[in-house]
User: Which sequence fits this backbone?
């Protein structure tokens, strides 16, 4: 098993957001986490990634058998955890090339590999750009600066392709995308699927799941996973909305 | 009495010194120059050295700097083997290098160079002998001795420094590098005076470095007068990499005739106490001045940037961007004053100051200030001071970049907004390198902005040795 979350409670500034999440993800699987706004989906992603503003008050997260709580943000990333951001951060002055080269080489260094040479790195970047259908000169620009919503999300998938994570958590990567961008993002994910990696796709809508076929669908509601099922659960949610979940919980 | 030994800096000391050396200081001076000196020392006697009771010096206390004893020489010391010092260069940067040691022009047997295109550059003292009319026309007409006691003192004693003259319609084919090196075995007080004249429709790119060579304390009072003729263009860089025991009061006065263009950059990488007085006078319409500054401080370093732009005529544009990163107990000050006079319609003036404080004990005082007496203007100012952006830190670290490297990347990106405005590519590369080294704590004070002989140029990158953390 790749990821095992047990009874996870977490919050921010004393306010509890996650109230006992249980989730298990194995290699080769795609999980979708759905749910209404404000139920803790993004918090769950951030806590797995190690964001320090959130306090984990109870529960455990194991990743490849290791207790994630012992690892810093960058150590988790180097172990193969990737988070696609709902709102990718603009970083003026840092080029994507410099950013990715630093990231790739720091990950390599942590594994005892030599850094990629300039030539090797550029070849890798060209290959991954093709994979996610980036044709523009995006990579010479500052990270996300002045990017359109679609460009930002494509850039997330590009970074994911560069870093080849074992566990990718995509936090509402589909929000704000037109159908073409959505297709490109979904294609990127599908091309990166391997028997030894896994994806957790957080989404508000069923739309993305027409392109990325999940093995499991979970509904997060008020800080707990209240329902799990196959991909048909996504269709049911699309038809009925979240109200019936709310009613069931009452 | 050409040398005054180990005395603290006081008003009386310098007034006495002037009285005792009047003959030496005014020897071979024109009547006009004698008059300028006498007026200046009278002005100094009235003003004295500034203290914290003055608004523009409120946050810069010189008492500690003053109290150290300094030697002051009214004749140049025996020259070191300065040839070695000035042989080096920024790789591939083809420049004319001129140097000063302890405030005196380093002649290399040619005190004044006269180039085929009419450009003159070299020692101010020599120019005074050879081109008295030129000196008379410009010297002391741009600097304002009433601005503060330091300028008046400098004018009274002005002996040597650098003179550059670019005649009308001539563009200097190479950037000129002016290097001030301080090197002495005792604490040293020094003054130098520079006069730069860029003629009408002329062009000059000047890289002006203040460097120290050892850890001895020094106190420099440097005044630079710059005249830019109408349609003249000047690209100016002031780089400061001094040791932590040094105090530098640098005053640069620009006077711009109509339709002139100025880009002036202040890059403060190191220094004990650095004060940059930057004064720009638009003396005609359609002038354009961009003034950029970056200061990277730690320890107890102190940088005080005082920028005054006088929009005396209409249709002029000024833009100030100053950025600082302050660590440990450093203190940064930005005081920007834009004066828009009554007739200065269509003025466009911007002031921006941004700071990152890395510790709770680092401090910044930022005061952008617009004084406007005309309604038809476009003026804005802004100032921010904060920590490194935590969202950006999380983003970088989530990609596997270590915390320390992520901090470096963000700090460098912050500084790079200013560095990237350097128009000379080789210089920009060099400064980028120096900024990276500075942020990584690897910049040595003996590493001059141009003098880098011992090791070949190595691009610095951000991968850092984790074992050292």
Assistant:
């Amino acid at each position: 098993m790749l990821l095992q979350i047990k009874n996870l409670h977490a919050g921010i500034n004393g306010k509890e957001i996650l109230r006992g999440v249980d989730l298990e993800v194995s290699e080769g699987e795609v999980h979708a986490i759905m749910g209404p706004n404000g139920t803790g989906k993004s918090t769950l992603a951030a806590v797995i990634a190690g964001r320090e503003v959130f306090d984990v008050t109870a529960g455990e997260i194991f990743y490849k058998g290791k207790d994630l709580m012992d690892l810093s943000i960058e150590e988790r990333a180097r172990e193969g955890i990737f988070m696609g951001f709902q709102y990718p951060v603009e970083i003026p002055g840092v080029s994507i090339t410099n950013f990715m080269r630093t990231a790739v080489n720091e990950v390599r260094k942590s594994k005892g590999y030599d850094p990629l040479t300039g030539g090797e790195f550029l070849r890798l970047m060209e290959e991954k750009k093709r994979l996610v259908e980036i044709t523009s000169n995006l990579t010479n620009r500052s990270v996300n600066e002045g990017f359109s919503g679609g460009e930002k999300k494509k850039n997330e998938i590009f970074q994911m392709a560069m870093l080849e994570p074992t566990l990718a958590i995509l936090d509402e990567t589909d929000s704000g995308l037109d159908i073409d961008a959505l297709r490109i993002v979904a294609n990127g994910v599908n091309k990166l699927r391997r028997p030894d990696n896994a994806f957790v796709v957080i989404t508000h809508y069923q739309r993305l799941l027409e392109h990325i076929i999940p093995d499991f669908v979970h509904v997060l509601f008020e800080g707990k996973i209240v329902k799990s099922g196959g991909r048909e659960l996504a269709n049911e949610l699309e038809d009925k909305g979240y109200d019936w979940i709310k009613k069931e919980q009452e | 009495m050409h040398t005054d030994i180990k005395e603290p800096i006081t008003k009386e000391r310098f007034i006495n010194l002037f009285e005792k050396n009047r003959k030496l200081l005014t020897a071979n001076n024109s009547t006009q120059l004698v008059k300028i000196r006498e007026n200046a020392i009278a002005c100094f006697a009235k003003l004295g050295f500034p203290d914290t009771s003055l608004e523009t010096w409120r946050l810069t206390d010189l008492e500690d700097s003053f109290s150290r004893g300094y030697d002051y020489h009214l004749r140049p010391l025996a020259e070191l083997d300065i040839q070695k010092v000035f042989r080096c260069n920024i790789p591939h940067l083809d420049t004319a290098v001129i140097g000063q040691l302890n405030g005196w022009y380093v002649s290399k047997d040619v005190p004044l160079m006269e180039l085929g295109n009419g450009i003159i550059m070299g020692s101010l003292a020599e120019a005074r002998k050879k081109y008295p009319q030129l000196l008379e026309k410009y010297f002391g007409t741009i600097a304002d001795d009433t601005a503060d006691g330091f300028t008046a003192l400098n004018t009274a004693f002005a002996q040597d420094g650098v003179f550059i003259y670019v005649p009308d319609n001539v563009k200097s084919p190479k950037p000129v590098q002016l290097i001030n090196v301080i090197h002495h075995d005792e604490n040293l007080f020094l003054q130098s005076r520079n006069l730069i004249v860029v003629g009408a429709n002329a062009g000059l790119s000047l890289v002006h470095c203040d460097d120290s060579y050892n850890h001895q304390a020094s106190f420099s009072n440097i005044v630079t007068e710059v005249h830019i003729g109408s349609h003249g263009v000047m690209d100016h860089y002031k780089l400061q990499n001094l040791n932590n025991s040094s105090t530098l009061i640098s005053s640069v006065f620009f006077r711009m005739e109509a339709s002139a263009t100025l880009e002036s950059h202040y890059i403060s990488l190191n220094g004990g106490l650095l004060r940059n007085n930057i004064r720009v006078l638009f003396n005609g319409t359609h002038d354009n001045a961009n003034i950029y500054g970056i200061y990277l401080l730690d320890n107890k370093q102190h940088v005080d940037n005082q920028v005054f732009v006088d929009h005396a005529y209409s249709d002029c544009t000024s833009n100030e961007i100053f950025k600082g990163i302050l660590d440990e107990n450093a203190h940064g000050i930005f005081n920007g004053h834009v004066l828009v006079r009554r007739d200065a319609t269509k003025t466009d003036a911007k002031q921006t100051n941004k700071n990152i404080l890395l510790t709770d004990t680092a401090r910044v005082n930022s005061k952008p200030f617009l004084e406007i007496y005309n309604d038809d203007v476009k003026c804005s100012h802004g100032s921010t001071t904060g920590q490194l952006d935590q969202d950006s830190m999380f983003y970088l670290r989530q990609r596997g970049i270590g915390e320390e490297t992520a901090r470096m990347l963000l700090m460098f990106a912050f500084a790079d907004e200013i560095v990237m405005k350097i128009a000379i590519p080789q210089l920009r590369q060099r400064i980028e390198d120096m900024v990276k080294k500075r942020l990584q704590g690897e910049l040595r004070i003996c590493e001059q902005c141009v003098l880098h002989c011992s090791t070949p140029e190595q691009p610095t990158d951000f991968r850092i040795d984790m074992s050292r953390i």
Remarks:
- The radius of gyration of chain B is 22 Å.
- Confidence is low (pLDDT under 50) at residues 448-469 of chain B.
- The CA atoms of residues 327 and 358 of chain B lie 5 Å apart.
- Chain B touches chain A at residues 389-392, 394-403, 405-406, 409-410, 412-414, 416-417, 462-463, 466 (CB under 8 Å).
